[in-house]
Amino acid sequence: MSVRLRPAADIVSIRPAALGDIEAIRTIEREANAMFDEVDMAAVARLDATSVDDLSRPIVEQRAWVATDEADRPVGFVLASLVDENAHVEQISVASAFGRRGIGTRLLDAVIPWARQHGCTALTLTTFSDVPWNAPYYARRGFRVVGDDRLTPGLARLRDHNATTLLGRWSRVTMRRELGAGSTTEGR
Questions:
Q1: Are 25 and 55 in contact (CB under 8 A)?
Q2: Which residues contact 147 (CB under 8 A, 6 or more apart)?
Q3: What pTM, to 2 d.p., does this model score?
Q4: 66-93 pLDDT per residue, tens
Q5: Quick one: which of 130, 136, 174, 140 has its CA closest to 154?
Q6: Which of 2, 60, 49, 57 is nearest to 26 (CA)?
Q7: Would you tell me which CATH number, out of the four given (3.30.70.580, 3.10.20.600, 3.30.420.10, 3.40.630.30), belongs to the domain 13-178?
Q8: CA–CA separation, 138 and 145 (whole Å)
Q9: Could you give the angle at which helices 22-34 and 52-60 cross, rounded to 10 degrees?
Q10: Is the pLDDT of residue 100 over 50?
Q11: What are the residue ranges spanned by the domains of the chain?
Q12: Which of 5, 40, 54, 153 lies at 20 to 30 Å from 71 by C-alpha?
């Protein structure tokens, strides 16, 4: 079943993802991947969406959130996990029709209460260093590049794994953002 995304006036909420959101999440992911054609990364643009099984797990484990329009249709999502006692942003994507509205920032902010609930003091992620909506975007939201000599064991494993996949064809970085009291990624 294919879900077609339509622009809406406003995003009204960020909520935990539900199993019924999986096809919409997969559609959003395909749209977000297609944007990599703009930066001559056609191989990334052609990646298929995450499998239903691989999306089900973070949803069931309550570490996935969606941004929704006024009709509660998902237009963006974020998946998180725990890596070395920090909250790791596994993936975040927003449908192209909803880009540049602060949805990604709101999705990142949705991870923060979950991170705190799990005793985390930072958010981490891995991303492309030279793609404008990747590392530069996260840097504007308070993330800083972590040097290879400062990677935790789990982050080093992620870096090494990424290097063996299609993603390793382009420069990637690991980034970290400390979670201070009352912090959000808004306005950074």
A1: yes
A2: none
A3: 0.87
A4: 999 989 999 999 999 999 999 999 999 9
A5: 174
A6: 49
A7: 3.40.630.30
A8: 10
A9: 120
A10: yes
A11: 13-178
A12: 54
For residue range 148-184, what is the model confidence (pLDDT) as tens digits?
999 999 999 999 998 988 887 888 999 999 997 656 6
The phi and psi torsions of 102 (rounded to 5 degrees) equal: 85, 10
Please list, in sequence order, all residues whose beta carbon lies within 8 angstroms of the beta carbon of residue 116, skipping any fewer than 6 positions away: 179
According to DSSP, the residues that pair with 174 across neighbouring strands are 126, 146
Distance CA(106)–CA(75), nearest Å, equals: 12
Q: CB of 77 within 8 A of CB of 17?
A: yes
